[in-house]
Amino acid sequence: MCQSYRKACACGQQTSEIFFGKMVLDEKSIAQVYCPECSRDVDTESNNRVWDNGWVLELNLDVVRTPATMLPETSSGQAGQAGEAGGESRSHSGRSDGSA
Q1: What's the total number of domains in the chain?
Q2: Which structural domain, as residue segments, surrounds residue 38?
Q3: Lower CB density within 10 Å: C or N end of the chain?
Q4: Under a CB-based contact definition with an 8 Å cutoff, are residues 43 and 82 in contact?
């Protein structure tokens, strides 16, 4: 099962649609979204940002880490990655008028 959420970008000119696979993460895991226009001034050295076709998702790492602590341990003794559990998020651009 997959859930999608719409979130306006930082400049308010565009809207993203973010898909969360297997419902491991939700909209609280995204702190901010930057469209290709407003992402030009975003720091690329941050470890809590995901870049996708000019769009930037700024993650709320406290929220993202919570599901990871509930995942079963792997043979190496570490909790599985969120991506392994289907908690992957993707950003898709949409126009500010709501059409995709």
Answers
A1: 1
A2: 2-72+79-93
A3: N
A4: no
Burial 26-48 (b: 16+ CB within 10 A, else e): eeebbebbbbeebbeeeeeeeee
DSSP bridge pairs for 57: 33, 50
Whole-model pTM? 0.62
Query: Residue 89 has which token pair?
Result: 């998020």
Q: Which two tokens stand for residue 95?
A: 């126009």
Say what percent of the chain tops pLDDT 70: 63
pLDDT at 99: 40
With respect to residue 36, please indicate whether it lies within any of the assigned structural domains.
yes
d(CA 45, CA 2): 30
Mean pLDDT in the chain?
Answer: 74
Q: What is the DSSP string of 61-86?
A: HHHHHHHHHHSPB-TTSSBPPTTTTT
Identify residue 2 by its one-letter amino acid code: C
The reply to whether 85 falls in a domain is yes
For the segment 33-82, what is each residue's pLDDT rounded down to a tens digit? 999 999 998 888 888 999 988 999 999 998 888 766 666 665 555 444 44
